[in-house]
Amino acid sequence: MNIQRLAVSDAIASVGGAPGGLSAADAERRLREFGPNRLERRAAEPLALRFLKEFTHFFALILWLAAGLALLAEWRAPGQGMVKIACAIVGVIVVSGLFSFWQEFRVERTLVALRKLLPQQVEALRRGTVARIAAEELVPGDIVLLEQGNNVPADCRLIEAFGVVANNATVTGEALPQPRDAQPCADEAPLHSSNVLLAGTSLVSGQAKAVVFATGMNTEFGRIAHLAQSGAEEVSPLRRELARLSRVIAMLAIAIGVAFFAVGRAIGIPFWQDFVFAIGIIVAMVPEGLLPTLTLALVLATQRMAKRNVLVRYLPAVEALGSTTVICTDKTGTLTQNRMSVKELFLGEPMDAPAALQAESPIVERFRPLLEVALHCHDVREGEEGGRPALLGDPMDIALLTIARRMPGSPKPFPRLHEIPFDAERMRLTAVHEAPGGATLYCKGAAEIVVKLCTRTLVDGSIAPLTDERRRQAREAENAMAERGLRVIAFAYRPLGPQWREDIVERDLIFAGLAGLEDPPRPEVPEAVRKCREAGIRVIMVTGDHPRTAAAIAREVGLVRSDRAVIVTGDELRRLSDTQLRLALDAPEIVFARVGAEQKTRIVEALKNKGHVVAVTGDGVNDAPALKSAHIGIAMGIAGSDVAKESSDMVLLDDNFASIVSAVEEGRVVFENIRKFLTYILAHNVPELVPYLAFTLFPVPLALTPLQILSIDMGTDTLTALGLGVEGPSPRVMQRPPRSRDERLFDGRLALRAYLFLGAIEAAAAMAAFFFVLRTGGWAYGQSLAADNPVYLQATSACLVAIVVMQVVNVFLCRSASRSIVSTGLRGNPWIAWGVVAEVALVALIVYAPPGNFIFGTAPISGETWLFLMPFAAAMLLLEEGRKWLARKRSAGAAGTRRWPTSRSADLSS
Length: 910
Hints:
elongated, Rossmann fold, 4 domains, Calcium-transporting ATPase, cytoplasmic domain N, Calcium-transporting ATPase, cytoplasmic transduction domain A, eight-stranded mixed beta sheet, nine-stranded mixed beta sheet, alpha/beta
């Protein structure tokens, strides 16, 4: 019989379960039989096919074409060395493809490993004890406990339900959330049964206890996933821009190659010789290592962020963080420690400290109704965490339950009959329990809400009318506690009697008092807020807490420093038009309090409409729209609901605001490092191109051969270029405003510096070294030299060495676009250090080892030639240092005359 038709006890028995849950042995046996509770992964693209794709992308096709043309040239005109060129080009394709494949494979493995840092957890009954286990370990017969914001981990039959509403859109396509209960249902299909929760759906509200009857691929969601699985992950905007940039450079290389070929033919250069030159230009300007280096930079950034407690779910978020201008943050658990403790109690004057709640103290009887509300009105469960007994639930509820248990006699809660769950609109939790004197309602929540529902209060242990004077006293006590940064909770109750109706219970309540709970700020938050201010990033608190509490915490952590801060409550926000809200956001210091989830989304949209790049934090299911609406959604890893995590771009493993600031820093570093890498590789394209230009326009030999160009692009410069891609943060990276979202990776400043400044200096040094060796060897202007002439071989070797020497200097200059090499230093990046060692060793092998001479057409050069290059290296260093000094001077002058928060990113930390 279908499980949804059975009574609760029969439903549990039908899957071999027990009211107290399975034993560990039964659970282990069923796990072996039914397998892990997970979906089978989509059949991945075969490894061999992915491997082959690395050799057939756009760049590779251009190089394959060049290799084929080189072989054709050798066939038509043997003895020109074109076979070597073809083999070298194929070597470039193979090396680049192998590296790229290894790097992509490493990224995939790294992201899988990072996601394992945050497995979905579920609370299940095991032999009467609540245990927090991985969702994959669930088996049929397990009894799970679910609450608002949880994802449903398997197909379950409800056995208890309090205000349960489920979002089934992922499985059934129903747009509106559906109520669910534990009553037997006549529906045949689980998809439409009112007492079934389906895997892949989520709880919008309420609390539930349910027995698992299907797991993994046997669930309805598993069957759907088997028919149609999701598509590939979105490609990063940054990667798309780099791909476009690479295509532009590649097409430019082809255009220049074709143009040079045409000019060469026009001035009478032999066809095949001219053809070789064109191939050399194309090979020289194709950025083979660009995409692998980007991938490496991003994956290393995600690893660094994971070490700083930030789990990146999507690589695009790493770079997007660098342009963040506003962070909308929760208060509890993010700015504060989420370690609640009760500091004050109020029920008429005076205030009382919880320390006075001793078993023999008369204060216990005075506050007994409040303590009874705290004992019953919560969602705390006793269970295990990390193998030890623990209270599981909201820290505020745990703190209140702890003091409630100080009542004498070790009180036990009465059976629960009904519950109206807490949500951001109601701002209170109400539960009905079967007390000895009959059904009793217990209510706790925001003071301004709960007190309005009360008509009576306790006075010296007796019930009296709640007069205006007593309401005023309660309001003043609430404000006084909030001013001290305490979170204020009001308590009320009401005996219902035997004839009570669920739809009218929240009225005519008896006020039982107030509790002020302390949740101290995290000690590292003030420094993180200061860093945000220096970085030109606004931090706006958006909380559901009391306005005075929010203001007190905001002042304590440094979000508010003046007396002119604007505090906007949810009620006030509701009365503001969109235009008024956008104008209100111009306030230098603003805090939003008593704000609902839909209002949080509205704030995010208003900030986006003002041109800001918005990061927003959230933990509840109601935060999902705001997380999705923001440019960067950041979920809480500890307190966050499953729905919030799945709606986010990244997850804070420690729920700490300071970790967001660390992530922003990493995002800025990624963008800067790619610009450094681009500057470095584009600079050496100029000295590789100038020899062809000189050969075409003047009667001089070709200073650099295609094989020698390849030795630079895929040999000597590889590790040093990668070193720039993983450069650490500069000291001032968080002391400049966010970069504009419109700022291009490859812009006019970068092009001028790389091509017309650094590249031009390198080209001058390379050509000077070439002509120095030629003239020393007796060459006269206009004289042609054979390809195997010893003087010509030494001259091309000198040109090659000159480029490498200048690039060794350049890699240290490219560590910053404006900071002096004195401040960046020569240490601190082992990739660059080892890259320089490898670069020098490799060029030495090419120039001085017989195999290198044979393959690359080189010959040993004298020590005099090396000494000849030193002034050029020194000149490049001095000229670039002078340019940086001028850049720093201009930036300092401009910073004093512009509005810092809206300025474009400066070069001070790049």
